[in-house]
Amino acid sequence: MGRPVNEDASSHASIVDPCSFTRFAEQVGPSALRVAYRWTRDRQQAEDVVQEALFRTWRSRERIVENPRAWFFKILWRVFLHHQKQRSSRRETLSEHDPFVGGTDGPYDQVEARLDVEGWLATLPELDRHLLAMRYGEDFTIQEIADITGMRVGTVKSRIHRALKQLQRSLSARDGTADGS
Question: pTM here?
């Protein structure tokens, strides 16, 4: 379900001038960095992806037709895919067992639990991990994810459902329950 036309028009107008765009960038920046980090698993690459997406958004800000936030995240997604293609031959991934992936501020059991979750997520196809990060990490709606990725709503729903089922089976296997149902 779309937003009212006047809201889209005011949203569009709100990022055309430099000061408004700066406010927009400050609003979406932290969320964009979290999403990009989940996708790239590398802070420097995530910052590069966000910076390039913000630059592309600024450069084409006159063309915004709909929700600027969703439009920006679609650009972010495309920039990420472009970076992945460029880096595919020399991509470096963080170790699943690196305690610094999630920070060391919490107790050891929180770090261990995070490593377990990251290990389970690592068993999923890369696209499914990205979809889960957008849906549950950043609270995007299914429609927003579909718009960002260019996938059909039904495809987004089924991939997220299958990914959650796979994670549920992994948890059940760990806990020793029968079938994960």
Answer: 0.58
